[in-house]
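Researcher: I need the complex structure. Ligand is nicotinamide-adenine-dinucleotide. Inputs:
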Amino acid sequence: MRKISIFGATGSIGQSTIDLIRRAPEGYDVVALSGGHNVAQLARDAIELNAEIAITAHEARLPELRAALAGSNVEAAAGAQALVEAASRPADWIMSAIVGAAGLAPGLKALEQGTTLALANKESLVCAGQLLMRTAAQHGARILPVDSEHSAVFQALVGEQIEDVERIIITASGGAFRDWPLADLKTATLAQASSHPNWDMGQRITIDSASMFNKALEVIETREFFGISPEQIEVLVHPQSLVHALVGFRDGALMSHLGAPDMRHAIGYALHWPHRKELPVERLDLAAVGQLEFRAPDLQRYPALRLAQDVMARGGLSGAAFNGAKERALDHFIAGRIGFLDMATITEQVLEALEAQPGLIDASMTLENVTQVDDLARQAADQVVTQRTG
Ligand code: NAD
Ligand code: MG
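Model: Output:
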């Protein structure tokens, strides 16, 4: 029996993880499951999987969670501190699938117990890549990528030396607006941005896919996780989302990873690593697919990709500033206060302002400093929005 915990269990990645566990429940001893507002779902899953503890991120929801768990053996807890404590409960495999920078502290705590962390929460690598990698190394923990592109690269690198890698190419579907005229993006609505042509994902990452902020985060994630330089990372638009990534080696060979757009592949690969086990994903029929399409990304359409380059060039805590500003701008877009293109403008403005503050971005990468920059970025984004909307 492997002891496992799932942080962000009620989300899209969390539910796909639970789907895999449910198919072989005898193999797993579930320690902690966490969620947010969806307390009923959290309690149902925790009871079904006989978890030790269920944690909601929101303290106000604790009575509701307690009530939903009444009569079961599952403990109830709430709040950010409870999440971190739950991450220190011994487990052999921990899924980090909280959305946003909120996943960083529990992820770090999990690594401190020297476990295997399946990392879907890309924001933590963007905010604090060096801190995560350093913490893993110090405690003999392992991070396995769950983002589909990074899982694909990881798989293409099996048996290879990172020194032999010339470039890593991650693909991008182009999201909801890839075929829209540039002029129309300004008035794109929340509903339009919230539907993805190929992947079924949480709302935030779906909107980030339409704006390419998701790909911007992934470029930084590639740099942090695989430790290669920014010039070696390329983005390729591939509308079908069947080729997830390619790795180019010094002899010119390209190794690619193909599969149906189903996150249970990347999750299952991380769950069973270093072995492969059967997974309930569609098998590709390439003859039926016929053609694969690729094109270069249009940087004018996607300013987020340019910002990712700036962040990597600047280094330090600029990733935390970038991500915090982006998360807050996304909140404002979801709330209907700003337009679709304003997210990039606001993020850029905040990034510039924070980078100009003496010593801030170059402070050492500790959880405290990362959290401070994240907070400042959110405040600065709020200020910009208030100035704009009056
Ligand atoms: P989601 O919105 O569907 O689920 C997010 C989960 O995090 C939920 O359980 C929610 O309750 C919890 N949560 C939200 N805010 C929280 C907070 N402040 N504190 C604690 N918990 C909180 O998101 P998702 O699509 O499953 O994505 C999860 C992570 O995986 C993200 O980092 C995303 O970028 C990454 N990812 C997702 C996909 C995908 O297909 N969905 C693919 C690749 C990477
Ligand atoms: Mg991805």
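Model: Summary of the prediction. The first helix runs from residue 12 to 22.
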